[in-house]
Design brief:
Bound molecules: iron/sulfur cluster
Radius of gyration: 26 Å
Strand content: 5-15%
Largest sheet: 6 strands, parallel
Shape: globular
Number of strands: 12
Distance between the termini: 58 Å
Helix content: 40-55%
Length: 461
Amino acid sequence: MTSFPEAARVELANVQQRANLRNATDTIRAKRAKVIEELPDWEELREAGKAIKTDVLAHLDEYLLQFEAAVEAAGGRVHWARDAAEANAVVAGVARAHGVDEVVKVKSLTTDEIGLNAALAEAGIHALETDFAELILQLDGDWSSHILVPAIHRNRTEIRDLFARTIAPGITSDDPRDLAEAARVYLRERFLTARVGVSGANFGIAETGTVCVVESEGNGRMCTTLPPVLVTVMGIEKLLPRFSDLGVFLQLLPRSATGERMNPYTSLWTGATAGDGPQEFHVVLLDNGRTRVLQDEVGRQALHCIRCSACLNVCPVYSRTGGHAYGSVYPGPIGAILVPQLIGIENAASLPFASSLCGACYEVCPVKIDIPTVLLHLRAKAVEAKAPAAERAAMGSLGWVFRGPRRFATAQWIGRIAQRPFLRGNAIRRLPGPLGKWTRTRDLKPVAAESFRSWWRRERP
Ligand code: SF4
């Protein structure tokens, strides 16, 4: 994985992307603020969401078994997948058993996380993305940069040109309605002939075995109702205990995500029902690192996430670098705390540092994930895992100096003398050797000519 600072340097040079990001995140932020203001009990809803998710994680083993029993009692089939390979094998196996070479897919971060499309392609099966933005990315071999608006970095002229090269030869208009119509015409036939659909899940209800998908375009409804066979890939943390819990989350999610009171399409299904929708239903319960996250008492709250993307839209780092800099399907503040835990801190050590710790993400999170605290927790782990012996020794010595007032005063005195050759005006602009990394992108304030303690002694003898 390319480190965040390296990737961010490249992304920051993309002026078009920065303009698109600013427009999109500003618009969604304003819409969200407006609909949240309407609810006098918004804070209580957030508390309720947090409490439900905390309960789910505390009793996940029981809720998972309850969900499995309910799905199977309703005529569905449950598969357990420890990792991406196992989950992909289940989906490929179902598609192969039905002799298809194409499946239609609803936008799903979980299937992106496990690289399902590539795994199916290896098995000779094409996974057709049916979400408008995902289709754009698939046609261009690009990948998502925002949880909810995956093609946020593309503009409509680019999309018009792409469609003209691929699914709509001859299209000249870049009017959003014409672009949507071109995609609709292309997809409609595929929906009607598809024999296997693949979806993710926003929520799974342990009590009833019901699966819930919320979306805006109606393609999800098509994928989950038209094909006779449906496979849903669901992270094990997506459970809610009771059907009535949806009452909390269906208020929190659309308002936080798109700034709507209710999203246009909410699909709910329970197992397979004769004569109505898919006649064969499979659900793959995916771990892929989640039980490891669960073991961390501080970090586990990342599993509360309902993928609303509100934290991305307020993040000063995300809104400038965009999603690709995070190198994962989970960008922004949630990516910075979830990815290092899912794939191991040693494999994504720079991500917890991709934050100014301003706390805006915590303030907007509908399930009150304390992202800044988790970031600090992961930073400590990253330092433990990666810091070279010299850095650890330096930090140890600093700690020793800071613990004693006399030692601290002596260090200040030494610092005042040592900094003289590097002082330019009232700042140190360049430090030598490895310390130069600090001054490469910022100035350093010099040690003050007089410390507060000595001023205090002089002024209040
Ligand atoms: S961390 Fe919170 S704000 Fe961010 S995507 Fe998840 S639920 Fe939404």
